[in-house]
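Progress report, Aim 2. The chain analyzed during this reporting quarter is listed below.
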Amino acid sequence: MAVSEENTQALVSALHCIDSLNFQIEIAKQTSEKVNSTLVLELTANDRPGIIQEISSVIHRQGGNLIKVVSSQASAPHTGQLMFKAKVQIAMNETDADELISALEHIADDLMVDIARA
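Predicted structure tokens for the chain:
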């Protein structure tokens, strides 16, 4: 059971008042506070089937919450090859942003990630 810090002592006292109840109480302290922030990533890569699914899977595995994806296709200027472009909004712990970018860049050699704080 989890209770707020200000209610901890009241809960412990109430539990001790119950006869014939055997229990063990452990009061845990939060070791680090998660600082959620909103990140906006601009992604560019050669287009291929399944690229959005791959990106969203990596974001999920890295602890991010995908809020919004806006994607498009365009021909590369010199080669005419179909390019994938996306703007992705993610809520996640800001300290994990570098790991997320690294994981996204490992999806493919041609995937480029630019990041901005929203």
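The chain has three helices and four strands. The helical segments are 8-16, 51-61, 97-105. These observations will guide the mutagenesis work planned for the next reporting period.
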